[in-house]
Each structure stands twice: as C-alpha cells, then as structure tokens.
Amino acid sequence: MSGLDGKVAVITGATSGIGLATAEALSERGVKLVLHGRRGERLEAHAARLPNCVVLAGDIADPATPDALIALAQKSFGRFDIAFANAGLIASGPVDEIDLDAMSDMLKVNIDATFRFAYTAVRHMKATGSGDMLFTGSVLGTKTRPIAGAYAATKYAVEALAESLRMELAGSGVRVSVVEPGLVRTDLHRDYEVRPEVSQNVPEPLTPADIARAVVFAVEQPRSVLIPRVMVLPSGQNV
Ligand SMILES: NC(=O)c1ccc[n+]([C@@H]2O[C@H](COP(=O)([O-])OP(=O)(O)OC[C@H]3O[C@@H](n4cnc5c(N)ncnc54)[C@H](OP(=O)(O)O)[C@@H]3O)[C@@H](O)[C@H]2O)c1
Description:
Elements: E1 8-11, H1 17-28, E2 32-37, H2 40-49, E3 53-57, H3 65-77, E4 82-85, H4 100-128, E5 131-136, H5 149-169, E6 174-181, H6 196-199, H7 208-219, E7 229-232
Parallel strand pairs: 1-2, 1-4, 2-3, 4-5, 5-6, 6-7
Helix pairs in contact: 1-7, 3-4, 4-5
This protein binds NADP nicotinamide-adenine-dinucleotide phosphate.
NADP nicotinamide-adenine-dinucleotide phosphate is lined by residues 13-19, 37-39, 59-61, 86-89, 109, 136, 138, 181, 183-184, 186-188, 208.
C-alpha cells in the first residue's frame, strides 16, 4: 500500500495533459481526487472512471474557486492533503506584437489564479500542520527565449511565489514543490500553427505521465524530506 493511500488531492487544470496524468498517477496510489477545469464533460468522464473522484467545472480565474474547491474536498472526503496548482495557458509572440488580451488572460490564470489558489490552500494546510503545495512551473521559469517573454514571466512569478512560500512554511509541516517541465505534448499548444516540437527541434517531447512521475516522486518522500524543484526535460531538448 502506498503512503499516499487515503490522502485527498485538489488538482487544477485536470481536464487534460499534466493535471489529468497526475490525477491518474495519484489515483493509482489510493489518493482521492477533486478535479477542476472548464471542460465539464471531460471532468464528468474522469469522475466516472476514477475511484473517489469529484469534480468542479469553472474558471480558475473566478476568485471564489479556491474556497469552493477546498470546501468540496472537505465535504466529499473530510480532509485535504495535496494541492496541485497546475492550470495554465500560453500566449506567445514578440513583445511588440503579442495579442495583449490573450496575454492578460494568461497573466490572470498563470499568476493571479495560481497565487489565489495557493493563498487559500496553504491557510488550510497550516491550520492542520500538514500538506503538500505543488505548482507547475516550467523550464521557462528559469530562463527565457524569444517570443516567450510573457509566458516565461508568469512562470518566473510562480518560482518566486513558491520559493517565498517554502521559506515561510519551513518547519510548519507544509511542503512546497515546483515541477518544471520542458516540452510536453499536451493541449497547451493546440492553437500553434507550427508544432513546438518542430519549431524547437525536439524530436521526442515528454508525455504528461513523465511529469506526473515527478509529482509523485515529490509527494512520496518521507515528511522530513523536501523536493523544492524538479526539472524534467526531453533528453533531446537543447533550448
Ligand atoms: N505542455 C508543455 O510543454 C508545458 C511545459 C511547461 C509547463 N507547462 C505547464 O503545465 C501546466 C498544464 O498544462 P498542459 O501542458 O498539461 O496543457 P493542457 O492539457 O492544455 O492543460 C491545461 C489545463 O489548464 C486548464 N485551464 C486553462 N485555463 C483555465 C481557466 N481559465 N480556468 C480553468 N482551467 C483552466 C485547462 O482546462 P480547461 O481547458 O478545461 O479549462 C487544462 O486542464 C500549465 O501550467 C502549463 O503552463 C506545460
């Protein structure tokens, strides 16, 4: 039996990609799930397939969402142990050409909503003296590249939040970790005219399951051990 058996995880951005793969990996270890995203039909399908899984559909940018998610965890399962702030989107382009409305939407989801979810989740965890607060950052939270300045800025923000939180919560029983993926084949780039594996010359991108393994690695550590950051890159990625 996994040490995670019976724990409860709230995962944002769980309709597809990294969030969904992480939900599946945690579920295999006996974790009960609260899943969030906008595509309600997908969430319902996941709930029908995964044991002990409840879902809430909506916009993560709605400031009421974090409280609603944690209340759903408490009402459904009576506890709340793992928060995975994973919802995100990408708007890219040269700084003087990027679609500013798309950029604003991205800032709202990747920064504002992520901060608000962490704010609420951590307050609950501190009260119980235990928990895991995880974020999906990016390799672009540690460096940038042309046309990725705005997206990288959001992931730098996630790194800053997580590192401050880690220090503030040291000794509290609440651990803070960031997973930093390189290129993963998901719905994130669905609107790209040129596939990123082509434009970035990455012959074999990661799969969402590759990132899920890193999340599981962090949360399965003994409580005395913290993994603050895990970067996972395709072995062929050179940018
Ligand atoms: N794919 C990569 O190469 C890569 C690399 C580094 C980091 N990341 C990060 O990984 C995370 C997950 O992305 P992914 O690659 O797994 O792509 P994905 O399959 O598109 O997943 C993104 C998730 O975020 C949710 N989401 C986006 N906007 C939302 C909103 N306004 N309200 C609620 N949910 C919202 C989406 O749900 P709905 O569409 O159903 O709302 C979806 O579940 C993101 O933070 C992304 O920045 C991805």
